[in-house]
Amino acid sequence: MDMSDPLTADFPTRNADQDEELAALPDAALVHQRPAIFWGSAATARMEGGKLSVQQLVIASNAAACQLLRHCCMTQQAAGVIMLPEQAQGPGIALPSPADKVCFMYLLDNSGAALHSTAGPLKAGSSLAESTDQLNLNASMPASQQTCSLLVFCQLPMQPERATSWMQGLLQVVQAQHVLVVASLPAFSYRGPGDPSQDALHYVVHSSAAKQWSQSCGIPSLPSGSLITGLAAAAVQYSEARRLSATALVGIEARPVPDMASLRQLAVYIEKLLKAHGSSFIHADSLMTAAKQAEKALSAAASNSFMYV
To answer: According to the model, what pLDDT value does residue 306 have?
Structure first.
């Protein structure tokens, strides 16, 4: 087995490996810590026993899905926020702003309208400790099924080893009839037909409980040999072990910015999967507009990330 660096052809030494291991020790405990989940009053009012029941839980875990769903839904009021343990330490934690690397959650009915509360929206900058009427650290245990969906924008780069504890923490306080995770798969982890640099390739991976629904959508299954990690893998594994319904929609990522064809296909597939499980807050007439806006936003973000010399 070749362990050399592909760029320098240097073999790693034991000292280098030990230095990396020692540097990782302070963060090792964080891998198993579950996230801190805070709810606004609109979500708290729908809870029973500290658990929120929804028809579908949709998690956008890559930039393309976040931009596409954000433009489709255009919601203004967050129903809650998910923070990593290190982000939620200490007294007087401030409510994050939309620019912060946290995960915002939105409650939507089947028409795509946000579900509001008379207590008002979450306000960035105020203290979590002083805003217990608007934001509450939740507990667990099941509740009755609600006819709404929970949309989660995962805006932070999630390390694969932390995805399992993150997903477990969320799914223990959110009871969903179906979980949909929209993710991306690097081209080097893909083993299947087609050229990811030329073709728009999207596939599904599902738990046994979601198999019949996913097959009715006409979306191909991920070819055998391809490796998925992160939130997509964590959601399917968690659901499979508990006989729950979950689907991961993965796009093969071969370029920094997906083209229009890829975004349009992604939007169509998301709509199909939502409708197959009984709800749709994405409508056909908004797909093209959302895809165009998402392409512009992603292109602008990519251009700001590179410097030419």
So the answer is: 40
